[in-house]
Amino acid sequence: MDKLIIEGKARLKGEVSVSGAKNSVLPILAATLLTDEECRIENCPNLRDTHTMIKLLRSLGKNAELNKNTITVTSKGKTNYIADYKLVSTMRGSFCVLGPLLAKLKMARVSLPGGCIIGVRPVDLHLKGMRALGAKINVQGGYVEAKANSLKGNHIYLGGIFGSSVLATANVMMAASLAKGKTTIESAACEPELVDLANFLNKMGAKIKGQGSPKLEIEGVKELHGTEYNVIPDRIEAGTFLILSAITRGDITIKDVCWEHLSAIIDKLEEAGFVIEKTDPPDCRAGCKIQLRVKRKINPVNVTTLPYPGFPTDLQSQFMTLMAVTPGVSVITEKVFPDRFIHIAELNRMGAKIMREGASAIIEGVKQLSAAPVMASDLRASAALVLAGLVAKGRTEISRIYHLERGYENLDEKLTNLGARVWREKE
Ligand code: UD1
């Protein structure tokens, strides 16, 4: 296992490019199960999670190869309907093979993903959606067993106690694409990655309308076909680089960004006092450039995470690091995963003053963090610790950084190119 060493307080300068969106590529790869024809997916980030999904597709009977940033998926013969615990338990995104397997094979046996460090993470909305389409669901031995003679379109309300669900929307959208008749999903998640998935499915021949809104209308089709597709930029990686630029007061240009997907984070950074300059892209795939400047005093701001277009929970911990070094008091409230606060203890080990109060964190900004050995606990919390290490005085050691590799492509290389002093050592 590797640990990451960061020598803090380097001046960061230069250009950094954003990779393809992890949360797009995972359901898009699952959607390739809906056809026996070849799919070519471009701009795929080379991440641990991408490799886990490739392994899962192979275990289900597909050929899947990653070459540079393109994944080609073809069929080898019969598709297997069992998604094994070993793969699904390591990555919750794997659970979105349920909809495609059920739609294509009329049966699926998919391991329950289980809880994780950021909370309990139930799958009731996924199962509600599959039942509404006519599937019989049995949960047994840690697996979801789903069967249907045929799936039929229906009117489905997919809101849960924490609002919409990204992967439940993905699962139902994929299953409904091959169901008989029309499906309407209300309280659908509106995340850009779901728009990307719907666009991919439509290129395969699906008939989906309303993507990006809470009401999706899906006219089922008899079959879907192979296609080529280019994945959108990762807005969470882009947001992390924006916060990096803010926290280090660096001179960083972030390339290959779709800034329309970053409105909530840009709004909060502007409220804090940063100025964000951006080039106007003709469309989000044209890859705009974005730069953050400091022109006045920076103030603490309060943030509440919400489903898109609200402030993303996946940037909550990174923004907390920024607030931890912004003098004054701020409150960050988590409304998507109310237990996603494991990073507080580690940030406090580096001299931050953060107190948890239910689903909120109260942050008293300090002038300076100090380096300490810390432990990465999940993907985004690891990014928060990297940001902390980059502004801390001294040498920070972050252990268990395999979490980072789940969602940030070549992060240490990208940071080194910006002038950061970051390297790996064996633990
Ligand atoms: C996806 C993202 C993850 C992001 C999250 C919220 C992927 C691969 N992962 O995860 O990075 O942090 O969206 O933006 O795209 N819930 C239920 N019942 C369900 C499903 C979810 O109550 O059946 C709850 C969850 O516990 C959570 C909330 O709904 O409190 C939102 O979760 P959800 O949108 O489903 O997250 P994921 O799709 O798993």
In short:
With 427 residues, the protein is of the alpha/beta class. The protein has helices at residues 22-31, 48-59, 85-88, 98-105, 124-132, 166-177, 192-204, 235-248, 263-272, 316-324, 343-349, 379-391, 402-405, 411-417, and strands at residues 2-7, 13-17, 39-42, 62-67, 70-75, 82-83, 107-111, 136-140, 143-147, 155-157, 182-186, 207-209, 215-219, 228-230, 251-257, 274-278, 288-294, 303-305, 328-334, 353-357, 360-365, 373-375, 395-399, 421-426.
Question: Could you list some keywords that capture this structure?
Answer:
alpha/beta; UDP-n-acetylglucosamine1-carboxyvinyl-transferase, Chain; four-stranded mixed beta sheet; 24 strands; binds uridine-diphosphate-N-acetylglucosamine
Structural notes for this entry:
This protein is an alpha/beta fold. The protein folds into two domains: 2-19 and 233-426, Enolpyruvate transferase domain (UDP-n-acetylglucosamine1-carboxyvinyl-transferase, Chain); 22-230, Enolpyruvate transferase domain (UDP-n-acetylglucosamine1-carboxyvinyl-transferase, Chain, Alpha-beta prism), CATH 3.65.10. Helix content is 31%, strand content 27%. The strands form six sheets. Strands 22-23-1-24 form a four-stranded mixed β-sheet, covered by helices on one side. A four-stranded mixed β-sheet has the order 2-15-17-16. The radius of gyration is 21 Å and the shape is globular. It binds uridine-diphosphate-N-acetylglucosamine (UD1).
